[in-house]
Amino acid sequence: MGNATERPARGGRRVFAAIVLTVVLLIAVPVTAGVVEIAGRLAEGAASAGDPSFYTPPTPLPAGQPGDVIRTERLDDGPEGALAWRLLYHSTDASGADIAVSGTIIAPVDAAKEGDRTVVSWAHPTTGTAPRCAPSIGVDPFDLIEGLDRLLAAGYVVAATDYAGMGAPGSPSFLIGDTEAANVLDIARAAQHVDGTGASDRVVLWGHSQGGHASLFAAARAPAYSPDLEVQVVAVAAPATDLASLLSADIGDVSGVTIGAYAFDSYATAYASSLPADPLAAILTQAGADAVPGMADLCLIGQNSQLHDIADPLIGSFLAHDPTTVPGWKDVLAQNAAPTTRLDVPLFVAQGASDTLVRPAVTASYVVAQQAAGTDVTSETYPGVGHGEIALKVLDTLLPWLADRAPASR
């Protein structure tokens, strides 16, 4: 697993996190009993996450600007040498509405001047779409932040959004670029309002898979949405970019059915006014449409076997029509493809050559488009590396790249 072991005190957790993440993202691979047991604890571990009411936003939601903090809670079981908080903060959804979003902030324990530390805004890969699937709810909310220990050791603050509708209930966000982007940028703003972080307005965007999609949208939206933030670089591992191409490539296996169910459920809610009257029936078989709500309520970690039970019989009989050709649906998919317009900051793209979920050819096409647009792109492809391992595999290359372009402090 490459650099899975990062600090001796948490080395076992880091190795296990890599194993679990591989299982999560290569969901066609059967899971062992041991992984299911502990992965189940991660998904269903709200008992260790403090009072569940923490995730219930006040009603009505108090007035606030994007990035304002609604509430925080110190986490005692943070990484060694770090301070950690769970928080609710103001953000926006794709319609621009004010919403509450949850997440986690982790900072080195060493004293820092106010506004000294660069914030790494981490965008997580798919864990599900239901509120209980949020990473911050798990028994160890830090295990799925890839590179966390090394980023903290380098002196960065790490801010990890759950995305809207996860943790705190609310608007859907799965592969909805504008919502994800706002959530990723606003938690970087929120980090500056949490005493003890030393967080500055300098931001690194770092994401894997779905999180790569979120990070690319955040980089594109930042100049207009958050001009108060100094986004310095964006780094992505196996990012979801051309959703139509990825859907076409993946829909023939259990992974594609599961990710498709998450996306179709998310879009059917968020874009109801732009889609056919019965949006799921417009693209799915009756069995597929009936299955989607139940699948959307299951988490990838801890409920993998239940997802398989539903998805396996649908392989080859999920889609009734190609969504890329159905009015409304084709527009929504195109709208949420990662922007290929020039980014104003350097871009780092890592891709595993053996990835069967986010296909290397799709990522390569995105890289070519960004290079043609004039973006400063560094692209690394790793032979023999699959989807789950790539974000860990790339750390030895990524961290020096960050240090040169976005150092942890000034």
UniProtKB/TrEMBL annotation:
Pfam families: LIP. One of its GO terms (molecular function) is triacylglycerol lipase activity. Coiled coil: none annotated. Gene3D superfamilies: alpha/beta hydrolase. It comes from the Bacteria. Residues 49-69 are annotated as: Disordered. GO terms for biological process: lipid catabolic process. This is Lipase. It comes from Cnuibacter physcomitrellae.
